[in-house]
Amino acid sequence: MSGHAAEKKTPLQRVLFAVALAIVFAVLFESTHMVPHFTGGIATLGAVGFLLLAGTLFSEIGEIFGLPHLTGYLAAGIVAGPYILHLIDHETVDRLSMVDRLALSLIALAGGAELKLDMVTKGLKSLAWSMFVQCMAGLFLMSAIFVACRPLLPFAQALTVSQLVGVGLLWGMVAITRSPSACLGILSQTRAEGPIARYSLTFIMSSDIVVVVLLAAVMTVARPLISPEASFSLGVFRDLGKEILGSIALGTTIGLVLAAYLHLVGKQLLVVFIVLGFGANEAINYIHFEPLLAFLVAGFVVQNFSKHGGRFLDAIEQTGGVVYVIFFASAGAHLDLNALKSLWQVALILCGARALITYGATRFAARMANDSPVIKKWGFAGLLSQAGIALGIATKISQEFPQFGAGFRALGI
Q: Could you report how far apart the first and last alpha carbons of the chain are, in Å?
């Protein structure tokens, strides 16, 4: 996620990518027609291999049009999924959800590892104002706009008023996420090192931790609003405090263990990430802590309290390069195109509203913090993009609240 500059491809290489992509799709198309009822673990393994190849090739071709790689990964899943070519069926798509845990763990570890203490301390006043205004304005205004858009949301028609408010708060959480990978990729391509670059990088990396903490709080409030059987009391905030503090403490421990492992062993990091993504993730969920927050803190600890932060981040990128392709391609395959036909109007409204709120909040926060004129004018630009964290939170919400999860996730994508 550190956004290394990509090597420029020649026209011949682009043609070869297109031919290879056509061959990959043709092979899977013929295979699914020759063995139409081929399911189970082997089918899932085949889907993983296909999405990895197709997503990578799609992303390379997308570079011609200036599209980020993430768009190519999503496109591969959408085209091959159960709503267009039917090369991957619904059952296989559901089985691929196991990759989500590993991908989200790596995204969180990388997000924490990108956050450096010196970045935060240099512009603490500006960061504090921006974080408060962006999070509060984005959360509550986007929640209100979501509620107002109810007539355009098919999955919200059957919700009661309290349920709609709860879902609106969850949408507000998705709206205030930012994209570390997009920011780092743009900075890598442009080689920018000015005040806008520093402001964007500091805010986005810090916001990851704030958003994950807020997510736990908002889900605590939203759950009794959405689920009638869930009760609400002041005791839930005591439990929330334990969850947040416990996650931070556990994340610190994981970070120190990782730092010691890097110092003493430093090999087979792929195995370590798999153990964290599957085994540790399940264990953290079992004790009712927040895995995203724990892994964010772990990455932060390795980066700032050991000498192996750069090496750790490089290892995540090498492993994550494969996992992210499958994660986003799987998300594309999950996308319900029938639902998308009825959601595109509200998606445009919500996207436009989020951009306006981000712009207004940036100008207000910059004025309160006495930031430079360039921050007041252009500081919002680096805060508009969303990617892995937003999709990860939308996925987590859809899993926690299956009664509206499919439509919510489709709108998020």
A: 20
